[in-house]
Amino acid sequence: MQSRGALDAECAIAQAAAAVGEWWTLLIVRDVAGGINRFEELQTGLGISRKVLSERLATLAEDGILEKRLYRARPPRFEYHLTAAGRGLIPMLIAMQDWGSRFVLGDGTVTATSGPRSKEARRMRKLVGIRLPILALPSSDGPSRDPVGGAEWTVVYCYPGAYAASSAYPTGWSEIPGATGCTLEAITFRERIGEFAARGAEVVGVSTQRPEEQMAFAAKAGITYLLVSDQELQLAAALRLPTFRAAGREHLKRLTLIVRGDREIRQVLYPIADPVASIEQTLVLLDRLGARRPARTGA
Asked: Which of 40, 72, 200, 275 could share a disulfide with 181, CB 3.0–4.6 Å?
């Protein structure tokens, strides 16, 4: 990155603020992380002048936060993607979102849920119609996996955390509204996995836990479907999913996405007050969306 001058030259906070502290810079990084990569799309979404956007994109590329990729030669047109340095900003963006949700839009308490009429809930409902970007996340079966595979439908359910040992839960976990119930939710999905398969739907669980924590939980609970780790907050940043902070780590709030095979999000369940009841609701929504009907048995 370019020199930031002598002022606070040895302070990493000051140098980082000089690189990314300008208002539009953070919003550009936010949108690029969400899969908006082309100039026209960024300009339309942000409502920023073309001159200011051109200047900010040039600076971000010069500072090594974005890289330009040619997608059309004549006339030359570029896409903008996060570099490793740019991806390193994702936890900061999520922390800012969590701070804003907690202290600006909320009352300052730590919570793993929200009210049905909250601004956060309205923002989640606006995900309907958005296409989920292609991601490669560490998985409980070993290799990195895209949460959306080749099925007609994918039910992506995000959960705060489920652990193999009760001692592994963060201190005070049971006192955080909405945090508990992940084990029962996971097991209920396991027990009803055939009903989802009959509708052409795969189930994928997502948390910010480390892959080895997910693997240990999957082995203990007999989870037969895929769990993927968003430990680097790629999915959270791409969709601006709601999070909360506990024990020094960001955790996803509980929500469910119903995603069609073309990656379009067709339904969002948030907030979820009853994890088990939400599974039945997800099946009903799949039926309403025209998912393959389960075969009838008997006369």
From this structure: 275
Rounded Cα distance, 23 and 128, in Å: 27
Domain containing 238 — which CATH number?
3.40.30.10
Give how far the C-alpha of residue 190 lies from the chain's centroid of Cα atoms, to the nearest Å.
22
82, 177: one domain: no
The pTM score is 0.87
* CA-based nearest residue to 80, from 64, 94, 92: 64
Q: Are residues 218 and 163 in the same domain?
A: yes
My answer on whether 80 and 153 are in the same domain is no
Per-residue pLDDT tens, the chain, 299 aa: give them: 445 555 566 777 677 777 776 778 889 999 999 889 999 999 999 999 999 999 999 999 999 999 999 999 889 899 999 999 999 999 989 998 999 989 998 899 999 999 999 999 999 999 999 999 899 999 988 889 999 988 999 999 999 999 999 999 999 999 999 999 999 999 999 999 999 999 999 999 999 999 999 999 999 999 999 999 999 999 999 999 999 999 889 999 999 999 999 999 999 999 999 999 999 999 999 999 998 766 665 54
Number of domains in the chain: 2
Q: At what angle do helices 39-46 and 23-33 cross, to 10 degrees?
A: 120
Is residue 177 a contact partner of residue 115, using CB atoms and an 8 Å limit? no
For 193-200, which contacts have Cβ atoms below 8 Å and span 24 or more sequence positions?
Answer: 193/224, 193/225, 195/283, 195/294, 196/155, 196/283, 196/286, 198/292, 198/293, 198/294, 198/295, 199/153, 199/283, 199/286, 199/287, 199/291, 199/292, 199/293, 199/294, 200/151, 200/152, 200/153, 200/291, 200/292
What is the amino acid identity at position 33?
A
Closest by Cα among 288, 267, 285, 238 to 129 = 267
Q: The domain that contains 83 carries what CATH number?
A: 1.10.10.10
